[in-house]
Amino acid sequence: MDIKSESQPNIIEPITDKMKEIIIPKLPLWINTYNLTLVSLVWSSIIVYAGYKSQKNIKWLYLVMICIFLHWLTDSLDGAVGKYRNTGAVKWGYFMDHTMDTIFMDSIFIAFIFALPQYNFIIILILLLINQMFVTAFLSLDKNGLDVSSCNQYFCLGPADLLVVFEMITLYVIYTNGKPNKYFIYFIFLFLLLANIQKIYQKQFLFNKEDQQEKSKIKNNNLL
After folding, report:
1. DSSP string, 153-188
2. How does residue 1 score in pLDDT terms, banded at 50, 70 and 90?
3. The domain that contains 86 carries what CATH number?
4. How many domains in the chain?
5. C-alpha separations of 174 from 35, 59, 165 in Å
6. Cα separation, 124 vs 131, whole angstroms
7. Residue 161 and residue 16: Cα distance in Å, rounded?
8. Which H helix or E strand runs over 151?
9. In 3D, which of 145, 137, 113, 114 has the Cα closest to residue 127?
10. Burial class of residue 108, CB neighbours in 10 A (0-12, 13-18, 19+)
11. Which of 13, 64, 83, 224 is positioned for an S-S bond with 9, CB 3.0–4.6 A?
12. Which pLDDT score is estimated for 151?
């Protein structure tokens, strides 16, 4: 996994951190880690409904955008509320938070499938590629962190940053009245395909190198 640092956070993380400082102390006690996490099921259900309705009126996708924002808000607060009140459930929160993220992401693509039936096949392929990126990230987790981020020397991209991308794509679909440029869709597919190939190659190369180093250490220890 790519590990974030204070000097290399996710792109919108500084905004999120500032928002937490303002909101969390003012939240009523009945708003807790558990309902903040599970409310994503509500946002996901509304998104699927809005996607279905968008078949007749593409402006229903504005409701999708609202739900994406609400998910970002509640998803950003759930773990932070637990830490602030010392009521967090670390293992439950980690498992359910990423489970809800996956369900939420899938709901967005279901909405796109309803809204853009002419691109159903490529949309499904894009969804599979994004799911593969999640799988690769989870399989490469190490003992130093529990965050799913993809980093380079300049910045890190995390799930919250992906939500911003979804907001922009949804707005573009609305702007084009449900008829986005096909090359735009193909570009997204090609970009994700290449990103998957690069990440899988990079990780397998790194892990193989670590395996060989470990074997060398064992062999040297046996010779002593």
Report:
1. SS-EE-HHHHHHHHHHHHHHHHHTTT---HHHHHHH
2. very low
3. 1.20.120.1760
4. 1
5. 31, 6, 14
6. 11
7. 11
8. strand 150-151
9. 113
10. buried
11. 13
12. 63
Class of residue 4 by CB neighbours under 10 A (exposed 0-12, middle 13-18, buried 19+): middle
pLDDT, tens digit, for every residue of 79-118?
788 788 777 677 887 788 888 988 999 999 999 999 999 9
* Cβ–Cβ under 8 Å, residues 192 and 133: yes
Q: Which one-letter DSSP state was computed for residue 218?
A: H
List all residues 6 or more positions away from 67 whose beta carbon is below 8 Å from its beta carbon.
43, 44, 46, 47, 50
Q: How many whole angstroms from its chain centre is CA 93?
A: 15
- Domain containing 43: what range? 13-223
Distance CA 49, CA 26 (A): 32
For tokens 């796109």, the residue is 112
Which amino acid is present at 24? I
Return the DSSP state at 150. Answer: E
Residue 8 lies in a domain: no
Residue 161 within any structural domain of the chain = yes
